[in-house]
Amino acid sequence: MATHATLHIYALILDKLSRQKSASLSELRVLLEEHELGKSERSIARYIEQMRHEFGLEIEYVVAERGYVFKKSDDFEVELFLNFVQLSQAAGIDIGGKKNMQTLVHLVQFDANQRLQGIENLKDLLFAIQHKRFLTFKHTNYHTERTTAYRIKPILLKQYQYRWYVIGEIEEGKYRTFGCDRISELVIDSKTFVAKNTKEVRKNFDQIIGLNYSDGKMEKVRLELTSLQAKYMQASPIHASQYIESESHDKVIFVLNLIPNYELIQKILMMSDQVTVLSPPSLKNEVKKHLMSTLKLYK
Questions:
Q1: Model-level pTM?
Q2: What's the pLDDT at 76?
């Protein structure tokens, strides 16, 4: 049985090999050192052999690549393995080897896309934020599929829906959010910058849901939920400011103090007919527009 520490090492090695074409023992050694799991290259080679033996992972040393290559197989999902490792570490469950995992997979179902995206750049990004260093990188836009070069003053790292993002100032007073999983050719500049209004920027992101930075004003949002939906919202708050204003046997009114944005509207729409926007009127009208547009699709 692999210990939790060993499973953590397996997960780090597999995650790296699944994200890039190959990795040398020295690269894997640096990776583990970054996570305070320093191991010799001989030990890492032994871990890889154990991963092959215990879980049937097709990891081979390829001379032409001067490193190890992970060959994904149809019967083994990287996401599944990483999710089981998380389950083992959180709940103390013995996932055993591949055979035991194949049994457990019929008893446990994981949410799709729960693997954190963009984690490979986090250390460098955090270093640049802490030391106020300019960053240059290329970023690919999902919508346009264009890759553009940027030079930013990094301000904040933010996690949202299993992805990591960096918020930076691209020009004086203008901020933008970049998906860390879409960043390539990242370079930390030796030149430092003078941080201005960073506390205000961070505060603004505290005052919204998600990523859409807004210069809008704070609003008192009042939502009326069915008693059943209210239980879900209490269990998984949509914003740190939310609280219950009043409740009856079948309705609960929540108040949120924030800057309304698109992500808030998405959250409201996800609750369907279990929620009614009471105020402000501007948000109520925006939600109504989205609902009417949706209804048109079914005519």
A1: 0.62
A2: 60
